[in-house]
Write a structure and sequence with these properties.
Structural class: alpha/beta
Mean pLDDT: 89
Strand content: 5-15%
Largest sheet: 9 strands, mixed
Low-confidence stretches: 51-63
Helix content: 25-40%
Shape: elongated
CATH superfamily of the largest domain: Glycoside hydrolase/deacetylase
CATH architecture of the largest domain: Alpha-Beta Barrel
Radius of gyration: 24 Å
Distance between the termini: 38 Å
Number of helices: 15
Number of domains: 3
CATH topology of the largest domain: TIM Barrel
Number of strands: 15
C-alpha cells in the first residue's frame, strides 16, 4: 500500500486532528511506543507496509494485489458497541471485518486490533465487488448483494462512524456539523421529448396503440397529440421535458451549491440506452447551454452506456466530447468532470489516465446509501482522480424496481441521508434528471411524478 493510499484513509478517519506520523500500522509490539495510535494489520489482506507505488495502465494492479488470497467476501466477525443509535432506534454498532474488536492502552498509545485500514480500503476501493461477481441487467453491482445491505448499515456512513469512534478513543475533536460542499447535479439524457420528428412519431404511435386498447381514455390520446404538436411547432419551453427553467429557479435558492449539468457527446449511439443522441449546436441544446452559462453553472461529461468498462470506447467518447467543447468555444475543461450513464461500472484508473479529475458516479442504483462507507471525497488509489460519492438520486427513491418509496417515505429517507452528511461535515452530491420534472399528464406519463414537490422540499432543508 502506497503512502498516498494510507494518507487518503487516515484523512477520512482522523479528519486532520492528528499528524499521520503519529499513527502506526504495525503488529510489532516493540514499535507501539513510537505512536499515539496503532492499528494492528490483519493477516492475508495483502496491504503490508506502505511503499512507493508504481504507475500502471488499465485496471489497477495494486487493487488486484490487495486481498489477493481471498476467494469470497469476508464475514463480519464481531461488532464494536458504540452506544449510539440511528433514526430508527437501531444500535450503530461497527462491523469488524478484519482483526478483533479489542482495544488496548499501552502507556500513551491506543492500540486498535480491528484493522480499520483494511476495512476502509475494502469499502473505498470496492474490493467487495471484485470478490462478488453478481451484477444486474446493466452490469452494475446491486446494493442488495452488499455487506452493508445484508447487515443493515446501508443507510449509515460506516467509515465516518469508525472515524468518530477512533477520535473518541483519542479524545480528539470531531468536525463541525455542517455540509462542507453541496453539488446539485443533473444528467441530461433527453433534452426534449417532442421537438424531433422521431418524438412526434412516437406520440402518434402511442396514440394509435391507445385506440386499440379499450381501457385507455380517448382524452389521453388527444392530450399527448396536442402536447406533441405544441412542443414541435413552438419553442423548447413548450416541451414537457424542457424543465430546466424550473430546475434553475429551485437550484438558485441554494446559494452555496455548485450546480453541474452532465451532457452527452455527439456520436453515434453504440447502445439503445444511449439514445437519443444530441449535439451541442442543436437548437434546443444551445438554449440549454445558454441557460447554464447565464446562471453560472458548470458542464460535465456524461459518458455513454456503451463506454462503461471499455477503455477504447471511453476514449472515443471522450474525444468526441472534447471536440464539441472546443467547437463551441469552451476555454476551460468541462470534460474533467464526469459521471457515467446509468451509473455503470467504470475503470477509474483509465479515467485518471485520460485526464478526468473528478468523478460523481459512485453509488448504488437500486438503493440510496453510502456505497463507499463515507460522505467524503477521496483520491482513487494512487491517481489524481477525486471520487465524489453520490448521495441521492431521484429514480433510486421512486422507481418500482428500486426503492419504490412514496413522497413521504422518500422525503424521510433523503432527509436522514442529508442529516448524516451534515453531522460528519461531509459532501452532499445529489442527482435529479430533468425528465423527473416533466410537466405533461398524458398517456406517455400517466402518473404525475412527486419529484416536482420532493426536490424543492429537499433543497429547502439545505
Amino acid at each position: 500500500m502506497s503512502p498516498q493510499i494510507l494518507n487518503t484513509i487516515l484523512d477520512i478517519l482522523l479528519r486532520g486532528t492528528m499528524p499521520h506520523h503519529m499513527v502506526g500500522y504495525t503488529a510489532t509490539p516493540d514499535e507501539f511506543a513510537k505512536y499515539r495510535l496503532v492499528i494492528v494489520p490483519c493477516e492475508g489482506c495483502g496491504l503490508g507496509t506502505p511503499q512507493k507505488a508504481e504507475r500502471n495502465n488499465g485496471d489497477c494492479n495494486r487493487e488486484k494485489a490487495a486481498f489477493e488470497g481471498m476467494e469470497a467476501v469476508p464475514q463480519i466477525k464481531d461488532w464494536i458497541k458504540t452506544g449510539k443509535y440511528d433514526t430508527q432506534g437501531m444500535p450503530c454498532n461497527l462491523p469488524v471485518l478484519f482483526g478483533s474488536k479489542d482495544v488496548e492502552r499501552i502507556g500513551d498509545t491506543v492500540v486498535v486490533h480491528s484493522d480499520v485500514i483494511a476495512t476502509a480500503y475494502f469499502f473505498l476501493f470496492r474490493i467487495e465487488e471484485r470478490l462478488n461477481q453478481k451484477r444486474d441487467e446493466h452490469g452494475r453491482f446491486p446494493a442488495r448483494e452488499s455487506l452493508a445491505f445484508r447487515h443493515g448499515f446501508m443507510h449509515r456512513a460506516v467509515l465516518d462512524e469508525y472515524g468518530e469512534w477512533l477520535r473518541g478513543l483519542l479524545n480528539l475533536p470531531n468536525p463541525n456539523e455542517r455540509i462542507n460542499k453541496i453539488y446539485l447535479t443533473h444528467d441530461v439524457d433527453n433534452v426534449t421529448l417532442y421537438r424531433s420528428v422521431r418524438g412526434v412519431l412516437g406520440a402518434v404511435k402511442r396514440s394509435l396503440t391507445s385506440i386499440a386498447t379499450p381501457l385507455n381514455k380517448p382524452a389521453d390520446m388527444g392530450n399527448e397529440l396536442a402536447a406533441a404538436w405544441k412542443a414541435h411547432t413552438r419553442s423548447a419551453n413548450s416541451d414537457p421535458l424542457f424543465t430546466f427553467n424550473d430546475m434553475m429557479l429551485w437550484d438558485n435558492q441554494v446559494h452555496n451549491a455548485q450546480v453541474i449539468y452532465f451532457l452527452k457527446s455527439n456520436r453515434r449511439a453504440q447502445s439503445r440506452y444511449d439514445r437519443p443522441v444530441y449535439g451541442f449546436n442543436d437548437i434546443d441544446v444551445k438554449l440549454l447551454r445558454q441557460l447554464i452559462s447565464d446562471n453560472g453553472y458548470s458542464i460535465g461529461w456524461h459518458s455513454s452506456y456503451a463506454s462503461a468498462g471499455n477503455d477504447e470506447q471511453t476514449l472515443i467518447d471522450l474525444e468526441a466530447f472534447k471536440q464539441e467543447c472546443s467547437l463551441c468555444g469552451y476555454n476551460d475543461t468541462p470534460w474533467r468532470l464526469h459521471r457515467a450513464h446509468y451509473l455503470r461500472n467504470t475503470h477509474y484508473d483509465t479515467l485518471a489516465q485520460y485526464g478526468i479529475t473528478d468523478d460523481f458516479t459512485l453509488a448504488f442504483a437500486d438503493m440510496a446509501g453510502f456505497r463507499t462507507g463515507t460522505c467524503l471525497p477521496y483520491k482513487w488509489l494512487d491517481t489524481s482522480l477525486t471520487i465524489h460519492p453520490l448521495t441521492l438520486m431521484d429514480v433510486t427513491l421512486s422507481e418500482k424496481r428500486y426503492m419504490n418509496l412514496d413522497y413521504y417515505g422518500a422525503y424521510d429517507y433523503a432527509k436522514n441521508m442529508i442529516q448524516q452528511v451534515r453531522h460528519f461535515g461531509g459532501e452532499l452530491n445529489m442527482l435529479w434528471h430533468n425528465n423527473s420534472f416533466r410537466t405533461d399528464t398524458s398517456s406517455a406519463n400517466p402518473i404525475p411524478s412527486y419529484h416536482r414537490d420532493l426536490y424543492p422540499a429537499l433543497l429547502q432543508l439545505l
